[in-house]
Write a structure and sequence with these properties.
Length: 75
């Protein structure tokens, strides 16, 4: 965890994966946001696709949905 967070900081890569954020914030000794405090992005097609991708990767469903998602995006 230390190496990953430090490397991302050094390379100025923002960690945005919702599944990882509580652990990263705990490691960095930052308070974890509650659902009421978290920001909601403005609705857009890009935000929708990002949310779907985050769900698929976060729930380890990459194989089953990747083809469907790529067909929807390319359509």
């Amino acid at each position: 965890m230390e190496q990953w967070v430090t490397s991302c900081d050094d390379l100025k890569i923002e960690i945005t994966a919702q599944a990882a954020l509580p652990f990263v914030k705990k490691f960095c000794q930052e308070p974890v946001e509650t659902p009421l405090e978290s920001e909601r992005p403005e609705y857009s097609k890009e935000a929708f696709v990002e949310a779907i991708l985050e769900f698929i990767v976060g729930d380890d469903q990459v194989c089953a949905y990747f083809l469907l998602l790529s067909k929807l995006i390319l359509a």
